[in-house]
Structures are given as C-alpha cells and as structure tokens.
Write a structure and sequence with these properties.
Elements (H helix, E strand, L loop, with lengths): L8 H12 L6 E3 H14 L7 E4 L10 E2 L3 E4 L2 E3 H12 L12 H14 L4 H10 L15 H5 L3 H7 L4 H4 L7
Parallel strand pairs: 2-4
Antiparallel strand pairs: 1-5, 3-4
C-alpha cells in the first residue's frame, strides 16, 4: 500500500506513451470489455472479477479508473488501458486500499503486458529501469490470502503440468 502519495504516476504515464502505446494500436469497445475482464481474471486464477462500468460522460480529468470492485471505461479505449486498469483492480482492496502506481501495480501490469500484448520481458524490464520506475516482478494480487494460494487454481494446475498458459489461450486481447 502507498503512503498516500503516488510517486510513480507521472513517470509511469510518460513511459506508457513512449513504450506501451507503440506496441499496441488496437482498441476495445465498452461492450467487449466485460468479457475480456472476465477471461483475463479467470486465466490469472482469480474469482469474482470487477464489473465494467461506463465512465461518466462528464469525466474530463480521467480516461479510465479501477478499484477491486469496478473498472470504469469510456465507449472506446486503447486495449492496453484495460490491462492498466486490471492491474489496478488486482492491487486494490474492496475497502479502497491501493498500491497506486507503485511497485506491486507495475509488477502485475508488466505481467499482463507480457502475457497479453506479448511484449518481451527483457525489453519491458529494461525500459522500466531506464525510466526509473520501481517494480516488484513477483507481484501477486493483494487480496489473495494464503488459504486461497494453497488451493490449486486453473493457472497453477497448468504451470504444474508443464504447459505454457500463453499457448493455451483461445483468444487474443487485440480486437
């Protein structure tokens, strides 16, 4: 959790424009978003995905936002924004606690970018380091407790069987 200040926010947004946006020019519609959230959430071995809601029409200062319970999007959004907001949902609690754009958020976001946009991990980590952005590469969703981790999830079952979860995915994030 953060101390109330989101120290990496500006650096991360600038990094996304320089590094992430050029890797993916696709967009998603609001109508597609809930299905993608549900599928990614399940593929990460999680239950009870956040609900996708429309960003209010009068919203001018934000383009999207998320917490553990909801992801708010505009009618059309760049695909990578959905991954950004999913990382927020995974690093937030139901009562409003959040890592902001801290190392846990960046770690999960990096995992999602590698998995769904197929950005090479080495290049991604090097670019984050060059931008001075802290990352916890071992990040896991903050609301997963030890008892939940002990139960075999679909993700861990695939990993134990030696199969690559990236190769079993029947769909791509790109639209």
């Amino acid at each position: 959790m953060t101390d109330g200040r989101d120290r990496q926010r500006s650096k991360l947004y600038a990094w996304e424009e320089r590094f992430v946006a050029p890797h993916d020019a696709s967009s998603i519609t609001f109508a597609q978003a809930q299905g993608m959230v549900d599928a990614i959430w399940a593929e990460m071995g999680l239950r009870f995905p956040p609900m996708v809601e429309r960003l209010p029409g009068q919203a001018r200062a934000i383009l999207a936002d998320a917490n553990r319970l909801s992801i708010r999007l505009a009618n059309t959004s760049p695909s990578w924004w959905l991954l950004h907001e999913l990382a927020h949902a995974m690093t937030s609690t139901h009562d409003g606690g959040s890592d902001g754009h801290g190392p846990k958020f960046v770690g999960l976001y990096a995992q999602l970018l590698t998995r769904y946009l197929r950005i090479p991990t080495d290049a991604l980590l090097q670019s984050l380091d060059s931008a001075g952005i802290g990352i916890d590469p071992q990040s896991e969703p903050i609301f997963v407790d030890a008892s939940a981790e002990a139960r075999a999830s679909p993700r861990s079952a695939r990993e134990e069987s030696g199969s690559d979860p990236g190769l079993e995915r029947p769909w791509e994030l790109r639209c």
